[in-house]
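hiii, so i know i said id send this last week but things got crazy w the move. better late than never?? heres the sequnce for the chain we talked about at the cafe, plus the structure i predicted for it. fair warning i was half asleep when i ran it
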Amino acid sequence: MKKLTLVSATLLLAACQQTPQVMVDKKETNQQPEAVKVETVVEVKEEVIAPKPLAPHEHEDVWQRIRSQLSIDVPDQPAVEKWKKYYLSHPRFMATISKRAEPYLHYIVTEIEKRNMPVELALLPIVESAYLPYGVSHKSAVGLWQFMPASAKRFDVRINKWFDGRRDVIESTNAALSYFEFFHDTFDEDWLNAVAAFNSGEGRVGRAIARNKKAGKKTDFWSLKLPLETNNFVPKLLAIADILKHHESLNYEFTPIANKPAIDFVAINNQLDLELAAKWSDVDINRLQQLNPGLNFLVTMPNQQHQVVMPADKAQLLRDKLAQTDPKEWMRWLEYKVRSGDSLSRIAAKHDSKVSEIKAANDLSSNRIYIGQTLAIPLVDFDKSMWRSATKKGRKVIHTVKSGDNLWDISRAYKVSVKDIVRWNRISAGSILKLKQKLTIIQ
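okay and structure toks below
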């Protein structure tokens, strides 16, 4: 029993040594111990909500607006890679394009969105004309969209002595998009074949598709046998679209263009002299001429509706002025119908004009006129005093027209106005320049 008692005491002592000792106040021995409060910390993960994508019109930059809607897949094709390398090796190219496209790009993108068409089409004038409304190809295609006369008239683009709608942003864009819709429907809703047809014609693309079908081959653009120009035309568009999409990783800059209307349109039903419009709206005539390159004589068409393109912040000034004036005061030109016994010299003397000015205004190569013919009499003075003083005081330079030249770029190169070049050379603002043509520039 002694051994058992010793072992029990030893175990009890060990247990006491392992149990935490709690000091208890003798006065509180009859009270129940307080419950231990245990705080539980629950980690709450915040839900990360991705920002809602901006709607196209919410972007600050038109290029970003286009970028957010690119939808045509760009395939891994050698021709596309070739043109990507070309554009990437010319880093200032898009800066130049942005400056030229700034008045038109927002309008064109908006029109494309209205028709639910691929926004890539807004990049096509870069390939077609480098966004030059005065651009003329070696085949005499004209304007931002490079229309030939036949295809332009097919889609109701007006072309007459007063106006060439191929250079007008409204008429040419409307016609181009209608053309694309037609090609898209014609060629099994294939947008690349539609773009190819816009360049080389529906007949050529249609025949290429028919040949491939007969031979059991594919009929996508990359499988068709087409002219070299067209084989480069589509890859150029895709290369630009791909560079725009990946511009950050490619370190390629597209100079921002504000995502808001740069131009507005003033509808008129009577002839309006653009010089008067510029004066009334406080706009430089050269800027107004650049926005209205379809007007051949700086005056709108007689007896036809027209929309004058204005800087967005100046359009209302012109509307207000037109509302306050008689349409008879809107122009300084006269339309004259030739009568029996008339001659150019007699008509010129009657209207205080010159035969040479009447011939220039009506594109006459001789003095021959006929009864009933309608002539435009330029009541707008050609500023002969300015011409004389310029030739006496200034330095005369002869510019020889080369491929790709247009009045706008020539005026900027010599730091003169298009208006002056037109006056100095007795040509219309819409004249198509010819290779090796001589232009007089006064500096």
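btw The longest strand covers residues 263-268. thought thatd interest u
miss u guys!!
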